[in-house]
Amino acid sequence: MQAMFFFNNVVMDGYRWGKCLLLLLSIFWRLQSTHGLLKCYCNFESCPNSTCETDGYCYAATSLDRGLAKHTYHCIELKSLIPIEHPFSCSSTKTRNESVAIQCCKSHDMCNQDLRLEIRTKPQDPGSTATAWQVLPWIMGLMVLGVCAAISLWWARRSPKVLKRESRSLFAPEESCCETRHSMMTATIRDMIELTTSGSGSGLPLLVQRSIARQIQLVDIIGKGRFGEVWRGRWRGENVAVKIFSSREECSWFREAEIYQTVMLRHENILGFIAADNKDNGTWTQLWLITDYHGNGSLFDFLSARTIDANTLVKMALSIATGLAHLHMDIVGTKGKPAIAHRDLKSKNILVKSNLTCVIGDLGLAVRHNVANDSVDVPSTNRVGTKRYMAPEVLDESMDARQFDPYKRSDVYSLGLVLWETARRCGSLPDDYQLPYYECVPPDPSLEDMRRVVCVERRRPVLPNRWHSDPVLSAVSKVMKECWYQNPAARLTALRIKKTLSNIPIVDHYKL
Q1: Backbone phi and psi for residue 376, each to the nearest 5 degrees, phi listed first
Q2: Phi, psi (rounded to 5 degrees) for 82
Q3: Side-chain half-sphere CA neighbours of 305 within 13 A
Q4: Which of 156, 214, 251, 342 is found 20 to 30 A from 459 (Cα to Cα)?
Q5: Could you give the strand order of the β-sheet that contains 68-76, starting from the edge strand earlier in sequence?
Q6: Three-state SS for 247?
Q7: CA-CA distances (angstroms) from residue 467 to 90, 159, 341, 446, 481?
Q8: 123: which DSSP letter?
């Protein structure tokens, strides 16, 4: 009995010690697995040695772009995972035919390097193939249309006057309705906008916007900001830009969508608005703003990587001034457009089109002038403009926010700084790209830094000596100096800037 009792004690002690050892090994393994950042494979040019580090997930995606498979690898930071339990950045868009596959992982370093995701198209349902009975009504319909066309042709030749009266009959609206409905099914985005808005620029009907938004497939991320992310998407083979706001930026999303749908706002130098939609799947809400896509990116990105000639300088400057003049102008009428001030004009909010003209975007901070009671419609968001581009009267808080004209003059000051950025990259010996006041303030200046330089010291960006000997750069520099006067009332209007730039001789052959 004593031997048996001793043996049981030894077994129980061994079991306890083994259990403790397993627990210690488990804790050690978890500490080892969570130590440091996760390394991922990255094929972006900005990634050194084709790797990146993150506290979130490794990302891999395969997309179809004009029939070719494109593989994208990079990191997603933990703070960008919205929501954290099921981030939509890691979810493939489900459509009838998938054109993008996305997968995230964090099992080990470089876990995404071997991911080669395949895009699988759904097989066609055999039951969907047309039968003879399904085709028969179409054949009958075509026959009826052919007979009607023959009768119409005969009647037109017989009596033009009768044909003219018939064209005013009750059948005309019905035919027009059918024609419109058919056009909507086969139209591109541009055709749909022209068809449904008649060029008024007030935006597509809300049901059409939602229909477009539900059919868009997200392809890859092209930008990030304080509001959220910008993706390149595809709709019926067309590229579109999808600006996805975080849920805490709902006021900015709503305001920007509201401004974009202002009557008569649509213009070739204002970023083309397509649709806005809020997608709620029961767990989180995605706030989408869909606009035209421009592959050259922002003016900031374009100037950072490329230089320009004198003709392109004037073309860009003239298109920006034209867009700003359209914003500032009020159109009087029953369906008139109110005057709008941008309030955050900078090179990052201006996009470059394929023909190297520019469009103004990001209208989330814009204000509208209410002519009826001479008031200013200011957004409720707590966001303010970019400090580096703020006018002196905004920095020292001397601007009368109850009047609309001071907002326009503040935009003109910002336009002068954008012209300075663009002009630096022009000529046979261009300067390196720099932001305004780069030599006076740190990369992320505070209000106090900008107030000291702009208001107290009254400094402005330096004009290189080579500009004085170049007729185009000299003319553009004269315009920018008249944009950033300390006294707001002395600054040029956007319309005057547009007319001055259009008179520069080098653009005689160029018409906006």
Answers
A1: -115, 125
A2: -125, 115
A3: 8
A4: 342
A5: 68-76, 57-65, 100-105
A6: helix
A7: 50, 71, 30, 31, 13
A8: P
Cβ 378 vs Cβ 350: under 8 Å: no
| b/e sequence 255-267, b meaning 16+ C-beta within 10 Å | bbbbbbbbbbbbb
The fold of 206-292 is Phosphorylase Kinase; domain 1 (3.30.200)
Question: How many other CB atoms are there within 10 angstroms of residue 332's CB atom?
Answer: 8
CA-CA distance, 224 to 249, in Å (whole number)?
14
The residues annotated as belonging to the active site are: 344
CA distance 172 to 148: 14
Instruction: Give domain 38-105's CATH architecture.
Output: Ribbon (2.10)
Structure tokens given for 302:
């374009």
43-49 long-range contacts, CB within 8 A, separation 24+: 43/71, 43/72, 43/73, 43/74, 44/74, 47/74
**For the chain, how far is it from start to end, CA to CA, in angstroms?**
106
Structural tokens at position 227? 């509001």
Q: Which residue has the tokens 């998938």?
A: 98
SS3 content of the chain, % helix, strand, coil (to 5): 45, 20, 35
What are the sequence ranges of the domains in the chain? Answer: 38-105, 206-292, 299-507
Residue 115 φ then ψ, to 5°: -80, 115
Q: How far is CA 18 from the centre of its chain?
A: 59
Q: Using the 8-state DSSP alphabet, how is residue 359 labeled?
A: E
Retrieve residue 216's tokens. Answer: 């868009």
Question: Positive or negative, the Cα torsion across 8, 10, 14, 20?
Answer: positive
Q: What does each of the 512 residues of the chain score in pLDDT, given as a tens digit? A: 555 555 555 556 666 666 666 556 555 544 544 457 889 999 887 788 889 988 888 988 888 777 778 888 888 888 777 777 677 778 765 544 467 788 888 888 889 888 878 776 555 555 555 556 667 787 888 888 888 888 877 776 665 544 344 333 333 343 444 444 444 445 666 666 655 444 445 566 676 777 777 888 889 999 887 778 899 999 888 899 999 988 788 888 888 888 988 878 889 999 999 888 887 766 777 889 999 999 999 999 999 999 999 999 999 999 999 999 999 999 887 678 899 999 999 999 999 999 999 999 999 899 999 988 889 988 876 677 899 999 999 999 999 999 999 999 999 999 999 999 999 999 889 999 999 999 999 999 999 999 999 999 999 999 999 999 999 999 999 999 999 999 999 999 999 999 999 999 864 444 44
Give the pair of three-digit tokens for residue 245: 């706001």
Answer whether 62's CB lies under 8 Å from 115's CB. no
Say which CATH architecture domain 299-507 belongs to.
Answer: Orthogonal Bundle (1.10)
Task: Report how far residue 229's alpha carbon sits from residue 227's, in angstroms, rounded to the nearest whole number.
Answer: 7
**Cβ neighbours, 10 Å, residue 437:** 20
3-state SS, residue 130: coil
In the structure encoding, which two tokens stand for residue 323, read together? Answer: 């867009």
